[in-house]
Specification:
Blueprint (H helix, E strand, L loop, with lengths): L1 E9 L4 H17 L4 E7 L8 E8 L2 H8 L16 E10 L3
Antiparallel strand pairs: 1-3, 1-4, 2-3
Organism: Gymnodinialimonas ceratoperidinii
Protein name: ABM domain-containing protein
Length: 97
């Protein structure tokens, strides 16, 4: 299984808008995506109010590529979030059970 960690930093002043997108669009989308075994969303905290993340566990690389395409090492961006986000990072790991 593949563990995918996706992190974003919002643009200053866009925290509330991104939080709405994160809770109402991104989390439901990821939870119903075929090939995902588990989704662990992480919302902003007081000490880092602009940072959000997802830890996703995918069945395998094929399932991940089916969702994001061959360039799976680049962050998959929903057009609704593009103007809200200052930076994104993505990392992949083999899940150890």
């Amino acid at each position: 299984m593949i563990m995918r960690i996706f992190q974003v930093v919002t643009r200053p002043g866009k925290e509330k808008e991104f939080a709405d997108f994160f809770h109402n669009t991104a989390i439901p989308l990821m939870r119903r995506t075929k090939g995902i075994v588990q989704v662990l969303p992480g919302a902003a905290r007081a000490e880092s109010p602009r940072e959000f993340s997802f830890v996703m566990v995918w069945q395998d690389l094929h399932a991940l590529k089916s969702f994001v395409g061959e360039d799976y090492e680049s962050p998959h961006i929903d057009p609704a979030e593009a103007e809200l986000v200052e930076s994104r990072t993505i990392k992949h790991y083999e899940l150890i059970e």
